[in-house]
Amino acid sequence: MHSKTIAQLISGLRNKEFSSVELTQHFLDRIAAHDDRYNSFITLTGDIALTQAQVADQRLAAGDAPALCGVPIAHKDIFCTKGVRTSCASKMLDNFIAPYDATIVENYQQAGAVMLGKTNMDEFAMGSSNETSYYGPVKNPWNTNCVPGGSSGGSAAAVAALLAPGATASDTGGSIRQPAALCGLTGIKPTYGRVSRYGMIAFASSLDQAGVLTRSAEDAAIMLNTMASFDAKDSTCVDQPLEDYTQGLAASLNGLTIGIPDEYFGEGLNPKTAEAVQAAIKTYQSLGATIKPISLPHTHLAVPAYYVIAPAECSANLSRFDGVRYGHRCEDPKDLADLYKRSRGEGFGNEVKRRILVGAYALSAGYYDAYYNKAQQVRRLIKQDFVEAFADVDVILGPTAPNPAFEFGAKGGDPVAMYLEDIYTIATNLAGLPGLSIPCGLIDGKPIGLQLIGNYFAEGKLLNVAHQFQQATDFHQQTAPATA
Ligand code: GLN
Q1: Quick check: pTM over 0.90?
Q2: Is 140 helix (H, G, I), strand (E, B) or coil?
């Protein structure tokens, strides 16, 4: 059962090949048997899952089954889940039981999905390797000496190890696409505003967007159908008509124009990654697409602009964790200043502290114009590059990450080397565009990701372009060696 796609599970449940309780128990047993190898879950919600599965079975029997009725999924631990610990992988929230559900969690509940548990991640979603979690690193199922990518490393490892058929995730600068690439999965970050951020713990509010990690573009379309909604509780959520993303999957790619940005193939790109991406370009040509070289001239400014804007927003967002209202509180504070200092000093890890310091500095009186304002101006130029490119092309294609999964500690001493792993994904968030990663090959047994970037609200087109590649190739069907 665990090797079936979500599409197959939906039909298996409806055809009574297995019940949701059987299916859910099967995944819970797999997690119990295998997850100490990967550490992909922070909290398991077996009792909730089995209760939801029983209800799902009743609805299936009554012929009243919503879209994902009875399908088990996992939620990244950045999404609030009522009555269940929501830690964001931080000591700060180790004791936090969310009093409400995130909108996307509610959407999945209403669609009948079953929650297996909450997945591990980088602390407050800051990282590209899942090494910053308070609950320890997540291991890549393809090679447990290597990182799964981050920050949604737990969701990616759980799906890649076949411990969950699909999982929710979030992407501020690449945190869905980069782990998708490193774990051989399909991952989509929708247009900013397509999915509600209500109840998703904020890192950098103008960049954060929820999305999904699955084993195929078809499954991503099915999961995104439920995740996407208009939500008045998130003021940046866009009231745009909802689509059925599965509808356009089969469309032919004849007449499609794919832009290949020069800047995504320069220095720093692993030659083997480049080779796999070039082979994927040939596949697209054979599927009828036209390839057009393009330029995104401000690409080199994306990482520097992001590492001013994201820390600036995080320093503001994380000021709410003060030891007063909820979260970690130090023992026996002397006075209020001591309470703040020690609660925050003890509750946050080093990467989070580094970002808060950088962000508070960039926003401080004398430096606001020099750093924060400048970065916002650069952001505008980056967005403009894409607007001009999309006048001539339908989608943009390139690598997702420069390298396949690296070993634990490989970039630990050098934050900038780590930041550069997101060089191809960050610009998409700065521009608010949708981006997707699909597997396109292996280097030494480790997966490589192909990135597709779409115009605003072109999620359906992106999924179609990804699905057509998956109809012509079998990279997405390969699974990590130890998962059988
Ligand atoms: N790796 C990037 C960072 O550390 C992006 C993280 C994310 O998308 N949440 O900020």
Answers
A1: yes
A2: strand
Residue 295 CA, ligand 1 centroid: distance in Å: 24
Q: Determine the Cα–Cα distance for residues 299 and 269; give it in Å rounded to an integer.
A: 14
Res 484 pLDDT > 60? no
What does the pLDDT look like over 358-404, one tens digit per residue?
A: 999 999 999 999 999 999 999 999 999 999 999 999 999 999 999 99
CA distance 159 to 214: 7
Domain positions in the chain:
6-256+392-483
Distance between Cα 149 and ligand 1 center (Å): 10
Amino acid at 449: G
Pocket test residue of 120, 122, 133, 192 for ligand 1, highest count of atoms within 8 A of CB:
122
**CA–CA dist 246, 176 (Å, integer):** 20
Mean pLDDT estimate for the chain: 97
Q: What are phi and psi of 408, to 5 degrees?
A: -55, 135
The tokens for 445 are 């047994």
Collapsing DSSP states into helix, strand and coil, what is residue 358? helix
How far is ligand 1, taken at its centre, from the CA of residue 151, in Å? 6
Nearest to 450 by CA among 143, 178, 142: 178
Weakest mean pLDDT among 51-60, 361-370, 381-390, 441-450? 361-370
Closest to 474 (Cα-Cα) out of 443, 445, 446, 438: 438
Catalytic residues: 76, 151, 175
What span, in angstroms and rounded, lies between the C-alpha atoms of 226 and 222? 7
- Residues with CB under 6 Å of ligand 1 are 125-128, 151, 171-175, 203, 310, 422
Supply 141's token pair.
């199922």
Nearest to 357 by CA among 417, 312, 305, 419: 312
Give burial (CB, 10 Å; 0-12/13-18/19+) of 67: middle
Fold of 6-256+392-483: Amidase signature (AS) enzymes (3.90.1300)
User: What's the pLDDT band for 416 if we cut at 50, 70, 90?
Assistant: confident
> What does 225-247 look like in DSSP terms, one character per residue?
HHH----TTSTT--------TTT
Tell which atom from ligand 1 comes closest to the C-alpha of 150: 1
Which is it for the CA torsion 432, 79, 177, 458, positive or negative? negative
274-279 — which CB contacts under 8 Å span 24+ positions? 274/399, 275/441, 276/440, 276/441, 276/443, 276/448, 276/450, 277/397, 277/398, 277/399, 277/440, 277/448, 277/450, 279/440, 279/441
Q: Which atom of ligand 1 is nearest to the CA of 204?
A: 9
**84's tokens:** 């269940």
Probe target for ligand 1 pocket from 309, 318, 353, 422, with the most ligand atoms within 8 Å of CB = 422
